[in-house]
Amino acid sequence: MNTFKIILIYGLILKISGVCGQSVGTLTDDGAWCWFSDPRAIFVGGSENRSIFTGWVTQNGDIEVAILDLQSGGIEKKVIYPELQVDDHNNPAFVELPDHRILAQYTWHGGTNGVIQNVMESPPEISSFGDPYVFKPKTDQLIEEYQRETYTYANPMILSAENNKLYSFGRWIGYKPNMITSTDNGQTWSDPKVVITSPELDTNNRPYVKYFSDGISRIHLVFTDGHPAVEPTNSVYYCYYEDGAFWRVNGEKICDIENLPFHPEDATVVYRATEESGRSWVFDIAADDNKNPVILYTRYPRVKEHDYYYTRFDGNSWHHHRILYSGPWFPEDVHGQRQRELNYSGGLTLDPNNPAVIYFSHVIDGTFEISRGETPDYGKTWGITPVTRDSQFDNVRPFVPRYQNSDDPNAVLWMQNHSYIHYTDYQSSIRYAIFPK
After folding, report:
1. Can you tell me the distance from the alpha carbon of 81 to that of 86, in angstroms, rounded to the nearest whole number?
2. In a domain, 113, yes or no
């Protein structure tokens, strides 16, 4: 019996004790999201009244937010920007401000319209979200130097050790990762800095970045050379921000903020892709108790082969472990048309409070299902517990809400696709599962 079968049997045994206690529900029958604007769901509220706050893009392009009351199970929703754009790249991401107001930030997919944010003025009342405010993080000098103005994605976060300074990252000027900061809870923002760029400026090259903040002092970044459909050896890199500078995994300084940008090779190489081992894409990052990064990414050694990898840094070196073959892409093929998104894997996410736990989407009997994985040995082996099974529709892009308190239940949210052709042609819902501790 091979190793995978052994692990699968172990996972099915775990189903008896694990799945029975979970509560599964639907947040909306009309919503979709991407995986490069995060956190797309967060735990919020005081100790007596905890909720999960999230949001999505509807079929007609509305930006909608929702709050799930963890005690009553009640769900409230509000459209904060009607008919923005039919595109799942535009989902909102959230940060809770020190006074418990929630800031939502999002963008159009490309174009020069800018970044949008709304602020909840009277938490936890979702009806108190203010009108959208649009701003353009740019300077004439930066556009002249990087030759392209475009806005996609927003990733807001807060660092308490820096007097609750807000940071936000997105793919903006130069088609590159940019960074802005705010010291007044998002009322005003600094001029942007380009964070990562190609050694020779290429305005068609776009590194993809996943961010994870500890909420205190450090922001972890895992990123690629560019898009796997464009870069034949798309590799994975890591760095972190702390105390006004960016650093390699071993603590060597890359540069201060004032000296940005840096090149991918200036950071730490996590995975050096070859055409034989497969180009890659990044899906999630968190940190262990020693602040060392844990990373989830995919490799594509062949066109329809999507392999999930779990990688951790132990303080000295990287350890890569293949989790499983997840299946091919999840968008539906249209007869007579070339598949536009060959690298849209089902997706996987870490539990940031316990990065030995992951949730992932993979094909079972022809349908993408969600499973929970837990490793007792840093990724070498996995116990797998079903979250969904025997589904009529594909379940993809799982996400664990950020900023969980110790008393909060465990939770995972995901997209369920009634139909998904590409990112502007979808009929999706947002589902959730709550697990008692």
Report:
1. 12
2. yes
